[in-house]
């Protein structure tokens, strides 16, 4: 779905990833769930592009609902995947930090889990290789994305500023609805 001149969204308000489309190629910000690969291919095709036009994937953090099609792009098309050094292990399937207990609400949790399973989240392919980035890095990718540390959701959580698109992608660092509790607000 086209959001602006340079930004296209895959997924929905539960799990999303974004494509920054420039004349030099495409930068993906997050990779959603494995089932979003079909949406990725359809969106690229609608632009007259293909996986070879994706220059890189920048992850806002390493959770399973953000790594979706990244390993496929990396393995099958040689696309590098960038993640903050503090989340590199997490993006490779490492342990999540202890102490993340939350009061989950059954309705919100079931809505998320239904979407998660329907979009292949139960068969997420963790990354086998990543390019580690740090706060302030400007990546040599279409749109010149800048990495901004926003630890909190995870130690390596980042925002990605793309000046060309006049956009900042924040991953789960800022949300207005918690997918597991249904709580609304910042």
Task: Give the tags.
186 residues; 9 strands; alpha/beta
**Rg, please?**
15 Å
Residue-averaged pLDDT = 89
**DSSP strand (E) fraction?**
15-25%
Number of strands: 9
Query: What's the end-to-end separation, in Å?
Result: 25 Å
- Strands of the widest sheet, in order across it, are 1-2-3-4-5-6
Helicity level: 10-25%
What kind of sheet is the major sheet? 6 strands, mixed
Structural class assignment = alpha/beta
Q: What is the tally of helical segments?
A: 5
State the shape. Answer: globular
- Elements, N to C (H/E): EEEHEHHEHHEEEE
Low-confidence stretches: none
What would you note in describing this structure?
The structure is a single chain. Helix content is 22%, strand content 22%. The protein has 5 helices and 9 strands. The strands form 2 sheets. The protein has a 6-stranded mixed beta sheet with strand order 1-2-3-4-5-6.
Which helices and strands, and how do they pair?
Blueprint: E1 7-11, E2 16-22, E3 25-29, H1 36-46, E4 54-58, H2 64-67, H3 70-77, E5 81-84, H4 88-91, H5 106-118, E6 131-133, E7 146-149, E8 158-162, E9 167-169
Parallel strand pairs: 3-4, 4-5, 5-6
Antiparallel strand pairs: 1-2, 2-3, 7-8, 8-9
């Amino acid at each position: 779905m086209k959001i602006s001149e340079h930004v296209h969204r895959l997924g929905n308000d539960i799990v999303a990833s974004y494509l920054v489309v420039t004349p030099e190629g495409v930068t993906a910000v997050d990779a959603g769930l494995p089932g979003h690969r079909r949406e990725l291919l359809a969106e690229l095709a609608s632009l007259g592009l293909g996986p070879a036009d994706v220059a890189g994937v920048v992850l806002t953090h390493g959770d399973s609902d953000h790594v979706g099609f990244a390993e496929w792009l990396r393995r099958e098309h040689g696309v590098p995947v960038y993640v903050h050094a503090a989340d590199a292990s997490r993006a490779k399937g490492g342990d999540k930090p202890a102490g993340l207990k939350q009061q989950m609400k059954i309705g919100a949790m079931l809505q998320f889990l239904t979407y998660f399973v329907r979009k292949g989240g139960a068969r997420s392919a963790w990354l086998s290789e990543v390019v580690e980035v740090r706060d302030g890095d400007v990546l040599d990718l279409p749109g010149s994305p800048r990495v901004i540390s926003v630890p909190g959701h995870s130690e390596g959580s980042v925002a990605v500023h793309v000046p060309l698109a006049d956009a900042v992608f924040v991953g789960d660092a800022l949300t207005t609805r918690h997918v597991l509790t249904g709580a609304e607000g910042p």
